[in-house]
Write a structure and sequence with these properties.
Length: 308
């Protein structure tokens, strides 16, 4: 039997440092490895967030949470500063507008703008002094609170007033613009001769025919269709022609006839349709042939006026 060959011996210098075993004297134990002393953890004086048990205190947690909220709020403010500035501008504008409206309304309804003078405009036949006196109840009333119904009740006593408008002129003037009724003639009644307008409203009554007003002979009275047609015809006449009319007659809406001046010339008008055109044709015919040289003007057809 062959013996195993001995392993080759590795020189001491060829061994790795970690594999070297220091030589020790026989009978002396190896000294223990030196290690750093271990110190138990203790609460740091600079970090009060930990108590003796190693847990965070409630007060410190609350402080940390509040600091976090403050930081978040600061970031929100920083990112929304433009939006807040725009919102503040709109709030300021709205507040200024509201103050202006409230101030204006308060001033308008205050005695600072009370009525101190009433001006009546457009009255030629109506007594201005009488109208002003009838509206005296509005003196001292703020312009914005003038009672329109009270003004209407005061003016309804004047038959010549057809319509009116109110105009406030701050600080103290109230202007009443009156549109008077236009009389178209007189109608004979048991009480005398009554002046009426185109709506049949009785304006005045006198025992004799008023000067400058034609006598109306209308079948059916003021409530008839013939009267309505006659009123439209008279109102369409030019002032120069209207001044020469002494009589108006109509039995139906289609046979209105006018009488001119002392000559007694007649104007056959027909219906009230196209009255504006007929008035122009009549004016031209009268310019060519005055009433003292013509007995009749026929303008029933504006395209072909006839003088007889």
């Amino acid at each position: 039997m062959r013996r195993p060959s001995p392993l080759p011996q590795t020189p001491e210098s060829a061994r790795p440092r970690s594999a070297r075993v220091p030589e020790r004297e026989v009978g002396h134990p190896a000294p223990a490895e030196e290690t750093a002393p271990v110190t138990p953890l203790a609460q740091s004086e600079a970090d009060p967030a930990w108590d003796d048990t190693g847990a965070a205190g409630l007060r410190d947690v609350w402080r940390a949470s509040r600091a976090r909220r403050r930081a978040l709020k600061a970031e929100v403010k920083r990112f929304t500063v433009r939006q807040r500035r725009r919102r503040n501008i709109w709030i300021g504008v709205g507040a200024a507008f509201l103050v202006m409206v409230v101030g204006t309304a308060g001033a308008a309804y205050s005695p600072l703008f009370a009525v101190e003078r009433i001006d009546v405009v457009g009255a030629s036949q109506v007594d201005v002094a009488a109208v002003t006196e009838a509206l005296d109840a509005q003196l001292g009333t703020p312009l914005a609170m003038v009672d329109d119904s009270a003004v209407k009740a005061a003016l309804v006593r004047f038959p010549l007033v057809e319509s009116y408008t109110l105009e406030a002129r701050p600080p103290h003037d109230l202007v009443v613009r009156i549109v008077e009724r236009t009389p178209i003639g007189v109608m004979q009644t048991p009480a005398g001769f009554t002046v009426v307008d185109a709506a049949g409203v009785e304006l005045s009554t006198t025992p004799e025919v008023p000067a400058g007003q034609p006598v109306l002979e209308i079948a059916g009275g003021t409530d008839s269709a013939a009267f309505t047609a006659a009123g439209r015809v008279v109102r369409a006449l030019p002032d120069a022609v209207r001044a020469q009319v002494t009589g108006v007659s109509a039995s139906t809406p289609d046979d209105v006839t006018l009488t001119l001046g002392a000559s007694g010339s007649r104007v056959v008008w027909g219906s009230a349709d196209r009255s504006a055109e007929k008035a122009i044709v009549l004016d031209r015919l009268m310019a060519k042939s005055p009433p003292d040289r013509a007995k009749e003007y026929d303008v029933t057809s504006p395209e072909a006026g006839v003088v007889r």
